[in-house]
Design goal:
The protein is α/β, with parallel strands linked by helices and 371 residues long. Strand 6, helix 6 and strand 7 form a beta-alpha-beta unit. Helix 7 packs across helix 10. It is 42% helix and 17% strand.
Length: 371
């Protein structure tokens, strides 16, 4: 039995955590592979979800005060596994030190970030990226979830020997347009069928550019009637800065702040247009999920968003509020928002089905062990 240990910072709501969950949820039993998840922090959103799939989830509950005392347990866990597959930069560093350097294990770094501009990242993230770049020549394998992520890390002087670009994958049996859920959600928020309903999903973060999105919606308000929903961690009315922006742009009647939601499919089904105003993405889960639910998409040309959407949606330059407003307006003015975008769903099915991603990881684990 080949024992794979997935090391990740936490299991809160996020694109990386979501993708790890989906890979594990769609993994078929294999007598040669077993999976354990080591979480550096405590319990969070995906913890029980992954446990319910009958995987062992170990929460190390590390913090600045207890890290020294947790090292023995960390070493014991890693020692009992054959391959260490780490997710996110802090976990990559931990996996190198304890997995590769001390215990000489096979280590995979799963890299899922593309905008390494210093002004859009925490100083601690910038520091760890620099450290990891120095250590990267010793890593056995790296996966990138987008072409942009690969290019960005080449520029960041990562030494990349063996790698693969494995895009995010999606379960089309879970993500689809549901007419019943559409009616239900629109009734809850009093959005009639004659009103365009715009949606954007993602956490409150500078790279998601909600400031630019709200500015564009403010301009759009002068042209057409619409409703919009912002969904994600930090997108609640308790967010003082966000609420101030909405009030400043006089959008309190148009924009709903819904915070994190469990059943994203319901809201994607309820909406007519998906908008991503991001100034930094690698591979956007939300864009692909919107496409799987047959939404018309307007996205900025960051990360692999242009590749994901291809000719099924509209792509505008990042940080260009004029272009963003015009693109959304064109969909409404031409009545394209009235119709579901079946070509968008077909593209996700053809290119990004979760089964292809699971198969790619399975082949990677087996081949790396056999080496």
């Amino acid at each position: 039995m080949i024992k794979v240990l997935h090391v990740i910072n936490g299991l809160g709501i996020g694109g990386t955590e979501n993708m790890l969950f989906k890979i594990l949820a769609n993994y078929r039993t294999n007598k040669r592979l077993s999976h354990t998840i080591l979480v550096l922090r405590g319990e969070s959103f995906y913890s029980d979800k992954i446990k319910s799939l009958d995987y062992e989830v170990i929460h190390l509950k590390v913090n600045k005060m207890n890290f020294f005392f947790k090292q023995a347990k960390l070493l014991k866990i890693i020692k009992n596994h054959d391959i260490i597959s780490s997710w996110l930069y802090h976990a990559d560093l931990i996996s190198f030190i304890y997995g590769k350097f001390i215990l000489k294990k096979k280590v995979i770094w799963n890299i899922r970030h593309s905008n390494l501009d210093k002004k859009y990242n925490k100083w601690s993230t910038n520091l760890i990226v620099k450290i990891n770049a120095k250590l990267s020549r010793k890593i056995d394998f790296m996966t990138f979830n987008s072409n942009k992520a690969f290019d960005s890390h080449i520029k960041a002087k990562y030494h990349i020997k063996d790698y693969s670009i494995i895009p995010n994958g999606f379960d089309l049996d879970e993500m689809y347009f549901n007419s019943f859920e559409r009616v239900n959600v629109r009734n809850i928020y009093n959005v009639d069928e004659h009103t365009p309903f715009i949606i954007s999903v993602g956490r409150w973060n500078i790279q998601k550019n909600y400031q630019g999105l709200l500015k564009s919606l403010s301009s759009l308000k002068k042209l057409v009637d619409f409703k919009a929903a912002l969904i994600g961690d930090g997108l609640e009315s308790s967010n003082v800065e966000l609420k101030r922006l909405i009030d400043y742009h006089s959008l309190s009647e148009q924009v709903y702040l819904l915070g994190p939601q469990k059943n994203i499919r319901s809201y994607m089904s309820a909406a007519d247009i998906y908008v991503s105003a991001s100034i930094g993405e690698s591979f956007s889960n939300a864009i692909a999920e919107a496409m799987a639910c047959e939404l018309n998409c307007v996205v900025t040309d960051v990360g692999d968003s242009r590749i994901i959407v291809d000719n099924t949606g509209l792509v505008v330059n990042p940080n260009n509020n004029y272009e963003l407003t015009n693109a959304i307006h064109s969909l409404i003015q031409n009545n394209k928002w009235v119709y579901r975008n079946r070509q968008a769903r077909k593209r996700i099915k053809d290119k990004y089905d979760i089964s292809k991603v699971v198969r790619a990881y399975k082949i990677l684990f087996l081949s790396l062990f056999e080496e």
